[in-house]
DNA sequence: ACTGGTTTAAGTCAAGGTGACCTTTAGCTA
DNA sequence: TAGCTAAAGGTCACCTTGACTTAAACCAGT
């Protein structure tokens, strides 16, 4: 029984996933999702938080963490029948530990690269990653978790770039602003402003108390093709 | 490692759940969700289908079946640490097996009764049932699974009564019809009609190919209170 | 054959959200 | 000062929604 983590962040306007290089067989030196065996007396949530700490040195309290799915194909692990429960974690672009620690093999990688086929992932981790991506896109549409990607405080533009990175297409800045600012509890104004290199200063916000987006952010029947 | 099944149906305009009476310790003679241990070489999906067959004699191919959540509290089973993966199954009001079989202890029971506290459920099955109910309500709003509750062919009124039973409040028949008939791929007309005891005959439909409701069925910000 | 009851089906309309687009504001830089 | 950029705010046609009304189709009772 193991847990595996699909940890997403947005860096350089691109959705990235945290991968480790496996140090042991099977799939030694192959890229994989962080994870490991569940210990006795531990819940799955606790195991996911522990692996997060051990393998990536990220602070789980700063991340949105939710159970994704259980994977149980008897052939999924050559060592034998090992069921894994995958977790989805969303968080801001956090610093990774420097070399020398357990988690030194952890790397951020664009999701498009990881799924591109150039470097296969260990086990069924590619399928898990695809499921995680699908869930994340759905969550952005129907909940306010997108704010979990933004280090506080953040601007409406920061939030919009999260959506654009995860969904893979541009949004109208004006309509996006109207939508998120009118959604009660999505954004909590701080009163502060951020002065960028160029352009008008932007108001800064914190995450609000709302968690559901009703109605969803997009009402169009389909995402643009080729996303 | 076990699987447990939250099997919902709508009978007598009420959402009901399939419960069994446990024959073994622990929680002997107590009501519980059907389920059992996963066998070697079996996926979780296969185990769920097998338990469905063994314990309820329902045909899994006629049901909508999806993974719900994994429950892992070390204290959830007095026999020791047993992780269970819960499945949600939605189906029409199917006949249950007669006495004499393995599944004779299976009974449909209104969800409101099962969660009412009058008869506690075994293990953490009350919490699992609550999660299943929440998921089912969400699914009805955002997908077309409600049709899985209806034996084919069915009428728009049949479908509306499903929503009313699961959500626990009345819907405007006229607006409901407009919504579902305009949703491409939700309903597939058969050309037939059903002649009820009283009232105008209703057109009969089959399930369409669509699976997502975009936008969701309700756009109101909240369900009526006290649902 | 008519009337009343019941359910399906279709129509009306004001209110409000959406998507596309435009204008103004506020800061920086050359 | 002009020019650039991004934020912030405004306009408007179109569509959906929710509440409501009207018509249609069938049955039962008189």
From TrEMBL, chains A, B:
<dbReference type="Pfam" id="PF21906">
    <property type="entry name" value="WHD_NrtR"/>
</dbReference>
<dbReference type="InterPro" id="IPR036388">
    <property type="entry name" value="WH-like_DNA-bd_sf"/>
</dbReference>
<feature type="domain" description="Nudix hydrolase">
    <location>
        <begin position="1"/>
        <end position="133"/>
    </location>
</feature>
<dbReference type="InterPro" id="IPR054105">
    <property type="entry name" value="WHD_NrtR"/>
</dbReference>
<protein>
    <submittedName>
        <fullName>NUDIX hydrolase</fullName>
    </submittedName>
</protein>
<dbReference type="InterPro" id="IPR036390">
    <property type="entry name" value="WH_DNA-bd_sf"/>
</dbReference>
<keyword id="KW-0378">Hydrolase</keyword>
<dbReference type="GO" id="GO:0016787">
    <property type="term" value="F:hydrolase activity"/>
</dbReference>
<dbReference type="InterPro" id="IPR015797">
    <property type="entry name" value="NUDIX_hydrolase-like_dom_sf"/>
</dbReference>
<dbReference type="InterPro" id="IPR000086">
    <property type="entry name" value="NUDIX_hydrolase_dom"/>
</dbReference>
<dbReference type="Pfam" id="PF00293">
    <property type="entry name" value="NUDIX"/>
</dbReference>
């Amino acid at each position: 029984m193991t847990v595996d983590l699909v940890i997403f962040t947005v860096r350089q306007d691109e959705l990235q996933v945290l991968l480790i290089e496996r140090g042991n067989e099977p799939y030694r030196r192959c890229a994989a999702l962080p994870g490991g065996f569940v210990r006795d007396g531990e819940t799955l949530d606790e195991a996911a938080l522990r692996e997060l700490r051990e393998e990536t040195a990220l602070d789980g309290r700063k991340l949105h963490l939710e159970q994704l799915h259980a994977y149980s194909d008897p052939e999924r692990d050559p060592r034998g029948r090992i069921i894994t429960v995958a977790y989805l974690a969303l968080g801001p672009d956090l610093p990774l530990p420097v070399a020398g620690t357990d988690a030194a093999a952890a790397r951020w990688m664009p999701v498009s690269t990881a799924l591109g086929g150039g470097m296969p992932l260990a086990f069924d981790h590619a399928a898990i990653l695809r499921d995680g991506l699908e869930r994340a896109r759905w969550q952005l549409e129907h909940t306010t978790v997108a704010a979990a990607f933004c280090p506080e405080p953040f601007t409406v533009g920061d939030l919009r770039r999260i959506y654009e990175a995860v969904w893979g297409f541009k949004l109208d800045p004006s309509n996006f602003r109207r939508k998120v600012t009118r959604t009660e509890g999505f954004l909590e104004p701080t009163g502060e402003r951020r002065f960028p290199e160029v352009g008008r200063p932007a108001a800064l916000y914190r995450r609000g108390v709302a968690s559901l987006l009703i109605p969803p952010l997009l009402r169009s029947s389909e995402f643009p093709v080729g996303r």
